[in-house]
What does this fold into?
Amino acid sequence: MILTTTPQIEGKPILEYKGIVTGEAIIGANFFKDLKAGLHDIFGGRSRSYENVLREGKDTSLREMQERAEAIGANAIVGIDLDYETVGNGSMLMVSASGTAVVI
It folds into this structure.
């Protein structure tokens, strides 16, 4: 399945629009990741643990969106948008993906 942020796929005409599909992931950042990230904030440097959480959330939400698109007969998703938010008291990260499922 082709996934793209663009509204079309060059050289591949869209034959049918199936509708909007979404995928969501809410991932908790545990105390140790928070502590380590806080130290990086004070002393500088990258927080690999948070980067991994972001990547996991993105991958999960895209995979979920792709599964929903396949279930309605699409073979591509165009116009993908990714959003990142914190929820709860800031210890949970929500990653949402949305796009238009199409047949090319």
User: Anything to note?
Assistant: Strands lie at 2-3, 16-28, 76-87, 92-103. Residues 48-71 form the longest helix (24 residues).
